[in-house]
Design a protein that fits this description.
The complex is a heterodimer of chains A (132) and B (562). Chain A is of the alpha/beta class and 132 residues long. Chain A is 52% helix and 20% strand. In chain A, strands 2-1-3-4-5 form a five-stranded parallel sheet, sandwiched between helices. In chain A, strand 4, helix 5 and strand 5 form a beta-alpha-beta unit. Chain A starts with a helix and ends with a helix. Chain B has 562 residues and is α+β, with helices and mostly antiparallel strands. Helices cover 49% and strands 16% of the residues of chain B. Chain B is built from 18 helices and 15 strands. Chain B starts with a helix and ends with a helix. The chains are: A alpha/beta (132), B alpha+beta (562).
Chain lengths: 132, 562
């Protein structure tokens, strides 16, 4: 049982819009039904608790949230533990400065963009393969 | 009856002084704007001019102009004479310092003594490109400074009792004065100008006195003296910047010594003219104040305008940004579920694995595609709004080769143009650069040309014509009032813009294009871009003949000043 759970690729999605996180979770789970486990969180507090309690391989973070932005949350995650992938997920592609900062530490993809969504799936696929 | 200038001044002077007192007491000036309304200086100068206008035989005596000092002109004087300090009015002390620095020995002292009021000897005669001023020109609105060249061209010498004389006979200064005219081709050289003056001097002497003057001997007959004007300085206070510095406000031109009849002015005449000059100091100083007030008012308005524009820009940008964010967020789950059902990046979706018959599968695929396209459309509108709001962020001044740009855009559409049977003609008469962001200007051209092509597709196939022209405007035209501008005209033979929508086409979100699903931001964006660089877009349209005029200031100084 323990061995099995270590093979599972663990993803945490943080988005203040629950429907966004849920739809993304369903999409990912659909493509990786047995290899990926996806948790979601709608607030920074909840996300930090989850991140402390589970060793996630990947965090998908909304860039613009009401109380905290994705980059700051990422830094808080880093303080807890390093060695995870980060994907920034944005509904505000016009902000080039933030985009640059995000790209320095991880991937940066646009919401509601099929191409970027396809890229996200690819990234997950490669990560799973690389770790397998 | 007066027989010369001296006699004229003595005969008419007292009358002019009395009339001046009357006019001066008539209008009370309470605030600077009053001055504009009454055109007071105009009336005052008319009193002086009418009072002294007098003709004996062919000799006309006149006292007909006041030369106003002006910050701009004084600055020019400064440049020409001596790279002078900060361009303010000359103070008496400054004039004195200046005079000493130019010529400590003060030559021609004898002459100065003879004409202690103000004597001005021009280096090449009375050069007056604006023509002789008429009193009508003394509108406070424009403070006509046309004839200041006399002072500009020569060093100023100060003699006692605040009297000024301008003296040198120096070709170097004349060339400076005439520089603009020589540059523009109105004159070949300063020498040529003097030769012309000497020729007319010889002819006049022959005609009026029957004296044959040989070429090169004009000076013996008083050529230089005949071009000696007399100016009475009007001293007053410069109140324009809140200080009370005593300065030369202007010069009352009394007349010129008439060559062969020349006589120095008597002390009596000088006193009368100085009295008249003194009476002018308040109206002239008021005129300056009004002028300055007007300029400051305009500057204030401009500054306010800029602030309003900037605030508007910030609001637009943050609104557009917020709007785009919300729309994208709202659509994101839709896109995610769409991907889940219909697949993504070549991967099968839920639907592909579902047990459906082929017809249902086909229908579902069709419906999902429709949804996908609608989402793309919604997102493209948010992008268009974003880029509309962010136009100002892209403002840069770079050399932009207009000819190349036009050709690039034409090439972009060349297949389209050919396929639709459109007759294209381009006429680029400007080979230089405009200094703007080339990407933005390209966007403008693309918008306007693609509109023209859309319109042309509604025209009969054998009547499809697109004309592009680029030229450089040295002067203003009926639409655009600023020179040094490049004008691009895009003309098409499409059905034209109906009268009832002519007022609306530049509005954001206004579109007449039902097929292409445009956001309706093309023209609004184009105009906003061009206006960013001080240009504008206009059009006129009738069936079969629609022209869009794009004006882009060359803007080289902005590029160089960056």
């Amino acid at each position: 049982m323990r061995e099995n759970s270590e093979k599972i690729y663990k993803i945490l999605i943080v988005d203040d819009e629950p429907s966004n996180a849920e739809s993304l979770r369903e999409l990912i789970v659909n493509y990786f039904p047995n290899t990926v486990s996806v948790d979601k969180s709608a607030s920074a507090e909840d996300a930090l608790t989850k991140f402390r309690n589970r060793k996630y391989d990947m965090a998908i973070l909304d860039v613009k949230m009401p109380k905290i932005d994705g980059l700051s949350l990422f830094k808080k995650f880093k303080n807890i533990r390093s060695g995870f992938e980060v994907i920034f997920y944005t509904a505000y592609p016009g902000d080039f400065q933030t985009a640059e900062e995000c790209r320095r530490v991880g991937h940066y993809i646009e919401k509601a963009n099929e191409k970027d969504l396809s890229e996200l799936i690819n990234i997950i696929k490669n990560k799973i393969r690389g770790e397998a | 009856m007066a027989s010369n200038l001296d006699a004229l001044i003595q005969e008419r002077g007292p009358y002019v002084l009395k009339k001046l007192d009357e006019v001066l007491s008539e209008v009370v000036i309470e605030k600077p704007s009053d001055f504009n309304k009454t055109k007071r200086l105009n009336r005052i100068m008319r009193v002086v001019a009418d009072g002294f206008h007098y003709k004996i035989g062919s000799t006309e005596f006149r006292v007909d102009s006041v030369e106003f000092s002006d910050l701009r002109l004084v600055r020019k004087i400064g440049e020409v004479i001596h790279n002078i300090e900060d361009g303010r009015f000359f103070s008496y002390r400054r004039l004195l310092e200046l005079a000493r620095s130019i010529d400590p020995s003060l030559k021609n002292k004898e002459l100065l003594k003879k004409y202690p009021l103000v004597v001005q000897q021009h280096t090449g005669g009375y050069y007056n490109p604006g023509g002789t001023g008429s009193p009508e020109e003394y509108e406070v609105d424009s403070l006509s400074f046309y004839n200041f060249t006399q002072i500009r061209g020569a060093p100023l010498y100060v003699i006692k009792n605040e009297k000024i004389a301008v003296l040198p006979k120096d070709m170097k200064y004349l060339s400076k004065i005439l520089e603009d005219d020589i540059k523009s081709g109105r004159l070949e050289s300063a020498e040529q100008y003097i030769e012309l003056k000497k020729k007319s001097f010889r002819e006049a002497l022959k005609k009026e006195k029957n004296i044959d003057v040989k070429e090169g001997e004009e000076d013996k007959y008083g050529f230089w003296d005949s071009h000696t004007g007399i100016l009475a300085p009007v001293f007053g206070y410069d109140r324009t910047e809140g200080n009370l510095e005593r300065v030369v406000l202007g010069f009352l031109e009394i007349g010129s010594i008439q060559g062969w009849d020349r006589k120095p002015l008597s002390d009596e005449s000088i006193e009368i003219m100085q009295k008249i000059a003194d009476k002018l100091k308040i109206p002239i100083s008021n005129a300056f104040l009004a002028h300055q007030w007007k300029i400051q008012n305009e500057e204030l308005k401009r500054a306010q305008q800029i602030i309003v524009e900037q605030e508007k820009q910030i609001v637009e940008e943050s609104m557009a940004g917020g709007f785009a964010h919300e729309i994208r967020n709202a659509l994101s789950p839709v896109v995610n579920y769409l991907a889940l059902f219909s697949g993504i990046g070549g991967r099968p979706g839920l639907l592909d694995n579902a047990h459906l018959n082929d017809k249902d599968k086909e229908n579902f695929a069709k419906f999902f595609n429709l949804i996908r396209n609608q989402i793309k459309y919604a997102l493209s509108i948010t992008s268009a709004i974003m880029s509309y709001a962010r136009i100002e962020n892209e403002k840069i001044y770079e050399p932009c080769n207009i000819k190349k740009l036009v050709n690039d855009v034409v090439n972009m559409y060349s297949v389209d143009i050919k396929n639709r049977g459109i007759k294209l003609s381009t006429d680029v008469r400007y080979e230089g650069y405009v200094y703007t962001n080339p990407t933005q200007i390209k966007q403008v051209l693309v918008n306007i040309i693609s509109n023209a092509l859309t319109s042309l597709s509604q025209a009969d196939k054998d009547k499809r014509r697109l004309k592009l022209s680029v030229d450089y405007m040295l002067k203003s035209d009926k639409y655009f009032r600023y020179a040094d501008t490049v004008r691009i005209v895009v003309n098409d033979s499409g059905p034209g813009i109906p009268d009832d929508i002519k007022d609306m086409i530049f509005r954001p979100f206004f579109s007449t294009n039902p097929e292409k699903k445009a956001a309706g931001l093309g023209l609004a964006t184009s105009r906003k871009i061009v206006k960013l660089y001080g240009g504008d877009i206009f059009f006129d349209s009738k069936p079969g003949d629609t022209s869009f005029y794009i004006y882009i200031p060359v803007g080289k100084e902005k590029y160089e000043g960056k």
